[in-house]
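Encode chain A's predicted structure.
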Amino acid sequence: MQGEKIVLNEMEQLRYDKLLRMQNEGRDPFKVEKFDQTHHSKQIKNDFENFEGKEVSIAGRMMSFRSFGKSTFVDVQDKDGKIQCYAKKDELGEELYKAFKEFDIGDIIGVTGVVFKTQKDEISIKMHEVKLLSKSLRILPEKYHGLKDMDLRYRQRYVDLIVNPEVKEAFLTRNKAIKALREFLEEREFIEVETPILNTIAGGATARPFITHHNTLDIDMYLRIANELYLKRLIVGGFEKVYEMGRMFRNEGMDIKHNPEYTAMELYQAYADYEDIMKLTEELIAYMAVAATGSTLVNYQGKQIDLKPPWRRLSMTDAIKEYANIDFEDIKTDEEAVELARKHNMEIIPEMKRGHVIAGIFEKYCEDKLIDPTFITHHPVEISPLSKRNPEDPRITNRFEAFVNTWEIANAFSELNDPIDQRARFMDQLRQRELGDEEAQMLDEDFLNAIEVGLPPTGGLGIGIDRVIMLLTNSASIRDVILFPTMKPIAKKEDETKSE
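Encoded structure for chain A:
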């Protein structure tokens, strides 16, 4: 073996020894390049009447091994599930049968044989050929207990997928939902585009970015926290409906709803407002639910939630009045609002204004009440630097957030297209950064130049795809719907890190 010495237990050492013997005998499984599959397990099981007595070739991972002298039963697991395969010494021949009995659970094998049904009515394949396609050198978790350690499941997703079939089902549901999203938007003539992931300015959202360095240009760059400002540039350039789905990166905490890199979808529609986008949002989420699960009714952790439109609409101040019994119509000034914040033990930030207090009170007293799908509208301008002001009340914006199961799953607004107002709001964000707010937005002069060229009235939307998938798959953590979630590296033991 080349490279660093591998620490093995007794059972794994036996597998390595077995592999070495095979290689010395000219039977190296790692030299096999291909196997011609004709069918998969699900096809055969679902259409047994047409497959009975016919020859098939399947391939997959051997998940069980039951030997009875001159006959052996194994379960082979492919992409669709498992199917039993039956080997007889007389059918395979003494030499091949002997080699076959040396295979281990976890090995990847190719089987050719005839479809039949056993006396116990189990659809099976009677082998007349079997080939070792790849040797498993590690021991899979024991059949009945499986892989239960959640931390290990996320770190070794490849093993998790093998031994916990329901995990794979969650990701197949995710695939259906994302495919449905694209279908929904393409039917409405939205164009899918791609924008930069490496940015010279972290813009489009209030979040802390990851910073990297470009050696050739000798400048710091940022992994995108949002793609909003680039997509709006495309609306300026003449596209009328665009969307992009991809990874976003935010250098923030991790919990059951947050992963540092996550999937988001943003879209922009010219000549539309936030009301149009609200209708589109509820229809889109319902469409994804039906495509992925067959219904708009989801059962999430024991709660029945119906995603069928129309969803409830409630302004942020009305939500506060309903759930916290606080009427912000009685609180006119910033000073009164800050005093209210103190009474409710809220963090007091520099240059705190009435709008910041409204947002803080809403987060503290209202979000955990929003189980059924609800649009929270008319956010304060102080927390909405890219949203158009409400013409009847310039203190608020024509914005909404969609909440389901207490989570924000979408954020949208009538886009601010007044370059003078936009510059003033960027300057306010810069002041917040100077006062220590690392999430405040940076000044993007090129974006200001773009909307000075002219941004038509536009509605925009961002959806947190992972949270939607959590709902559709009844997953308790965002890590359950991300194939390879971010994990803290396992510290090496001191003696393993010492240099020779």
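The two ends are 19 Å apart (CA to CA).
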